[in-house]
Amino acid sequence: xxxRTAKNIRAHIHWAAGIFVLLVLLAIPLLPATVTPAPxxxxxxxxxxxxxxxxxxxxxxxxxxxxxxDLTWPEGTSSNVDVYRNGVLIATxxxxxxxxxxxxxxxxxxxxxxxxxxxxxxxxxxxxxxRFDGGG
Length: 136
Prior knowledge:
Low-confidence stretches: 8-28, 40-49
CATH superfamily of the domain at 57-132: Immunoglobulins
Helix content: 10-25%
Shape: elongated
Mean pLDDT: 74
């Protein structure tokens, strides 16, 4: 009878492990040779913000029945901006503080479309439209 010692047990484990590895290596050529290609990543383009695509807002109200519009926009990097009403340049003002009041002076009904651009360029904020009804 063989005496079981730690050395014998280790040798038995290594020998058993060697057979297992040998069997695995022998079985590999018998497996079908199908290769599934890994899917390739398709990069999604990140939209680059267009300069000037910052929100311009307008608030129309009447002062003693006369049309008045407050325009606001976030402060940008330009020193001055051009303010357009219905496509006509009405003022060039400092971009900071990002605020302009248009005292139109008209009464009754009216519709006004505004655009604010970096001075001397067509790099503009969005257009906004203000409508006044005929009442008070």
